[in-house]
Structures are given as structure tokens and as C-alpha cells.
Q: What sequence folds into this?
């Protein structure tokens, strides 16, 4: 019997599915893979992942930006416990050595830039240990890039990259997105806009976002960062994606370069859909700047001796970004729970096959 494409998409009449039927399938880890087999939702996500992967390689190849395989383990993580940490490290024993599964490949890429590249990138899984929720996964696909240049340079790169990926997906899969996501207006508005994505600094948010919980996190009775609820207020105000720039230095990881006042960082988050989907920033150039930031963030400098030495032996002005691939797909499909996105779920406390 020959099975048609549409039957593969929607199943036999007995298995016919509405577009949302298998949302929440991650809750039943033993049946997850079987549900995915018959779900048009996950079948489409597979297509989107393949196209993002292909578009990423085309985008960077056209700009002579290189991709070099990097290990997924490291001894120095990019978000250690300390001020500005936004994730929990995942420590493992490998060959009788205690190492971490990488929560970001940023340090690998910074190292590779010093091999003579103008820019380097990768797209592969990274690992976080915190409790998963509607916005966070324990294992997700990370599209990261580091380049020579400053914050403005990398923000421009991010905008061009996101538009390139979204355009490639729209050209091939607009019908799928319309069916599963319930509309295309957000995608078309984004692609049809001829202007740069609007920007707002952290200090400027206080004129728009109510200066109280649950919209901000506080320390010493001062606003130090926006919460998910605060990001939602900004997105509703601008009615489109928006850059949140120059966050407080104490609220971001130690490696972000600081503005002359010492209170803010040369960094930016791109908010789309549920909130942040890209984080980017300019890095410290020198050993002295990096060491001072490690101490301020209450992170042991001994764990970053190699990083400090690299900054000393070859100081370089670089910037970079990381995009959560599942978060981009979440925005494309107009959905609000990232646990419904992975084809291979790896949620803490559960066993999934394959």
C-alpha cells in the first residue's frame, strides 16, 4: 500500500489529529516518542530545525565565517555560580575527571577567534541544570557566534541572521506555520519591516514597566533585571520584537564588557514571543578587566586561569551571541511552552527514548 504525503502528515482517518492534540506530550516520557511519530506538530518542527540548520550554514558561509567542531565538555563554564549567573552547571565524571557539560561554547569560540578567524560559529546542543519550565530546557540547541568587533557589530549580525533564517523558513513552510501556529501576521510583519529592531536600555524600561514585583528582580531595594513578566510588558508596548540593551553589569555574567560608568554592560537581549531568544554582548579585552569582573561577580579566578592568560597574551576586541533555536521555533509557531518543541526531549528527572 502506498502512503501519500498528506497521510504521513495527518495519519489515517482513525489517527487524524488536530493541530494541538499532542501538546504536552513531554509529560509522559515513556510514550513521548510514539506520540511524536503521529504528530503533524513534531513533523513540522523537524522541517523547521532542518531549515534553520541549513540556513545558518548558508548565512555564515556567504560571509566567510568559519565553523569548527568543538567539544561539549569544559572545565570553565560561562555561567558559574555568582552574580549574573542565569543557569545551573551540569557537572559529570568523564574518564575519572570532573568536568562540565558546556552551557555555552562561547569560550571555545573566543579561543578559536585567536587562530586568525574574523568570526566563528556553531550549532549544537548545550546543557543547563535548572528545573525546566515554559521558558527553559535542560538540553537545547544553541546557535552561537563570536566575531571581531563591538556590541553594535554583533547586534547588526544578529538582526541579519534572524531575518535570513525566518525568511528561508517562511518561503518554504508558511502554510505549515499558518496551520499549526494559527496565523502568519507576526512573521510577515517582521519580514516586511524595513527598519532596524527598536532598542530600549534597561534604565529606560523604568519609564514603561511598573517598577515593582513581579516585573523586576530586586536587590537592596533596587531594580537589577527584568523578569519574564517585565519582558512581556515591553513586547506588548512595542508590538514587535525589541532589543533590551545595557543591562546592569552585576546582573549579567562576568565576561561582558562594562560601560565607562562601571554599572552597565555592553550587552543586549533580543525579545521575541515569550521573551529573550538571543543574548549578545561585547567581551572584556584585557586580563585586568576580566580579573576585576571575576572578583566583582564573586567567581573564583583560579577556575579561569587559562582564560585570563589568553586575554593577557592576545588581547582582542570581540563580541558574540547565542540564540536558543527552540525559542525561535516557539515564536514562529505562536506557542508559549518550550517543552513542546524538542523532538528529543531531555527534561531533568525523566527518561526519554530514543
A:
Amino acid at each position: 500500500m502506498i502512503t501519500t504525503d498528506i497521510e504521513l502528515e495527518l495519519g489515517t482517518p482513525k489517527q487524524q489529529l488536530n493541530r494541538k492534540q499532542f501538546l504536552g506530550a513531554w509529560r509522559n516520557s515513556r510514550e513521548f516518542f510514539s506520540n511524536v511519530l503521529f504528530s503533524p506538530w513534531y513533523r513540522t518542527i523537524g522541517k523547521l530545525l532542518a531549515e534553520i540548520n541549513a540556513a545558518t550554514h548558508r548565512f555564515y558561509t556567504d560571509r566567510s565565517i568559519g565553523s569548527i567542531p568543538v567539544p561539549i565538555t569544559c572545565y570553565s563554564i560561562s555561567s558559574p555560580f555568582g552574580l549574573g549567573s542565569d543557569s545551573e552547571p551540569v557537572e559529570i565524571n568523564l574518564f575519572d575527571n570532573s568536568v562540565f557539560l558546556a552551557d555555552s561554547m562561547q569560550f571555545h569560540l573566543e579561543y578559536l577567534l585567536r587562530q586568525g578567524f574574523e568570526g566563528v560559529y556553531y550549532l549544537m546542543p548545550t546543557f543547563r541544570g535548572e528545573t525546566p519550565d515554559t521558558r527553559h530546557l535542560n538540553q537545547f540547541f544553541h546557535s552561537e557566534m563570536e566575531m571581531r568587533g563591538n556590541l553594535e557589530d554583533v547586534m547588526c549580525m544578529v538582526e541579519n541572521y534572524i531575518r535570513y533564517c525566518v525568511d528561508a523558513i517562511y518561503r518554504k513552510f508558511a502554510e505549515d506555520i499558518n496551520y499549526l501556529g494559527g496565523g502568519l501576521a507576526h512573521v510577515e510583519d517582521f519580514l516586511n519591516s524595513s527598519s532596524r529592531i527598536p532598542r530600549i536600555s534597561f534604565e529606560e524600561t523604568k519609564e514603561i514597566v511598573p517598577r515593582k514585583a513581579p516585573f523586576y528582580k530586586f536587590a537592596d531595594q533596587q531594580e537589577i533585571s527584568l523578569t519574564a513578566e517585565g519582558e512581556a510588558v515591553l513586547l506588548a508596548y512595542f508590538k514587535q520584537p525589541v532589543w533590551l540593551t545595557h543591562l546592569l553589569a552585576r546582573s549579567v555574567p562576568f565576561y561582558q564588557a562594562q560601560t565607562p560608568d562601571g554599572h552597565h554592560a555592553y550587552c543586549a537581549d533580543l525579545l521575541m514571543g515569550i521573551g529573550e531568544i538571543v543574548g549578545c554582548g561585547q567581551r572584556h579585552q584585557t586580563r585586568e578587566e576580566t580579573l576585576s569582573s571575576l572578583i566583582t561577580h564573586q567567581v573564583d579566578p583560579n577556575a579561569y586561569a587559562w582564560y585570563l592568560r589568553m586575554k593577557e597574551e592576545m588581547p582582542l576586541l570581540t563580541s558574540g551571541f547565542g540564540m536558543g533555536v527552540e525559542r525561535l521555533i516557539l515564536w514562529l509557531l505562536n506557542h508559549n511552552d518550550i517543552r513542546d518543541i524538542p523532538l528529543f526531549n531531555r527534561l531533568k528527572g525523566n527518561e526519554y527514548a530514543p
